[in-house]
Amino acid sequence: MSDAFSVLVVDDEEMYAQAIAAELSRLATTCDLATTAREALERAQSGRYDLILLDHRLPDDDGLRILPLLLSRQPQARLVMMTAYDSVPAAVSAIRLGADDYLVKEASLQPVLDRVQTLRRRKEMLAQGWSEHAREGLLGRSPGMLKVIEQLEQLARSPDTTVLLTGETGVGKGVAARFLHRLTRGGAEPFVTVDCVSLPPTLAESLLFGHEKGAFTGADQARAGAFEEAGGGTILLDEIGDMGEIQGKLLRVLENRSFVRVGSVRELPLRARIVASTNRDLSAMVEEGDFRHDLYQRLSVFPVHLPALRDRGDDVLLLAEHFREFFARKLAIDLEPLSEDIRKRLLAYDYPGNVRELKNIMERAVILAGGGRIELRHLPERLLADRPLRMEAPGSIPFEFVPGVDTMKSLEKRMIQEALARAGNVKSEAAKLLGISRFQLLRRMERHGLAERTSEREDDPEA
What we know:
Blueprint: E1 5-10, H1 14-26, E2 29-34, H2 37-46, E3 51-55, H3 63-73, E4 78-83, H4 88-96, E5 101-104, H5 110-134, H6 143-155, E6 163-166, H7 173-185, E7 191-195, H8 204-209, H9 226-229, E8 234-238, H10 247-256, E9 258-260, E10 267-269, E11 273-278, H11 282-287, H12 293-299, E12 302-305, H13 315-330, H14 340-348, H15 354-369, E13 390-391, E14 399-400, H16 408-422, H17 427-434, H18 438-447
Parallel strand pairs: 1-2, 1-3, 3-4, 4-5, 6-11, 6-12, 7-8, 8-11
Antiparallel strand pairs: 9-10, 13-14
Helix pairs in contact: 2-3, 10-12, 13-15, 16-17, 17-18
């Protein structure tokens, strides 16, 4: 597969399209031309493009109508709509349908070429620094993921800021931490992960801060801890919600930007950025007395929430195609793009294991296919059940999905309303019924305009 930046130009003005193609060839960019909507859809079905330049007016169809069809066949591509006339309503419609930008054609091709160069540089950054992270799920065009990427890019300019990554298991919190580290440090400094779940209480202080020789029985020699080993890089405190009694000492490290080895009195400077991650609702844990309020405040200087895969729309297809290509390349086999039947099944599933589960599904499917194309029989049974999809959570609040009537958004809203009603509008209880954290419930209630339904004693100023 070629790594060259590839562009599909869809424009019925052949001279204009050929002029763009000529300029792009000087930029070492491959370019295909289509003068009709039908030809564009055919090329999108058979080729693979990084960018689609789409004219608004085509002789056989409207560019806005085929825009989502092109993106469904090229989920990895960015799309820029072009038009000879400036139209705010058309621009808004294009962006809503998935376009990255909306450009008015000018005598000069420079605005178009500048946009191509910007998107090409983005691909180069992906190739250099994102390849490992992309296959783990930090790819997406959904509003939630674009916001995450924007926040991480902002944080890269502030290397000492403490970051709190939140989200369900499997959404890619560790991947986001590594990506932030690469953006900030360029990969030159260490990246150290501390698994707070398996941190032994009796050795936690030594493992985090290090110890001097003779500091305790068995300390036969001095040893650097995780904070020291991280140097000027990044230390990830994975699942910080499971950290026990050492919370107080971690708080002092954050406050003073220094730490002391066990058995020593000499303070060592903290040079690393601290990134904490959790799939738990820390604010609820604070209310219940399971997590220190002052530590929570210190950690949540800049919270970044990674959305669940089921809330990311067509990112599922983008990731699925990415995993298909990755595992096919790894196994040295040729595989066709995913069929419409496969895409429908992938979009219909709820992914309780999030991106990690999708990755496993695609790896299994590629292995079973062995070449040619992935078929329905290569998918797990849970994706093939011939019955209405059901969303159930602990507490038995089932809903049937009726195709053509219900949407994911309406179904989720009904579930939340039912859970709140059964829990007497107490958010923490409703969250338990739904099998999610209180923090996640608050986010979803805001999204559906249900905040007014909550009990006043449960109001959360940070929701």
